[in-house]
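BUG: 3D viewer hangs when loading the predicted structure for this chain

Environment: internal workstation, default settings.
Expected: structure renders.
Actual: progress bar stalls at 90%.

Input used:
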Amino acid sequence: MVKVGDKVLVIAGDDKGKEGTVTKIIKNKNKVVVSGVNVVTKHMKPSAANETGGRVTMEAPIHISNVKLVAEEKKAAKKAEKTTKEEPKKVAKKSTKKESGDK
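Structure tokens produced before the viewer hung:
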């Protein structure tokens, strides 16, 4: 489960491979807003709150399935080494077929 403030990695889309922190979660649409990811330019009309208007860059939400939680320990941990496993000894099995003379 991803929470606000968690560090995530984008695994799909135009920003694949980028990392950022979750700033907002939109539960009813299953989307999250990640800082520095999916930055779009929105054209704003002049209004009482924004008198000048113009182009504003903002972070758009992306679907929660396109992000993966990144563990903080991953950065310090080394790559896991492969261990070789001994193969089990092969044992011949007895045949269970009945001979043609037995009925």
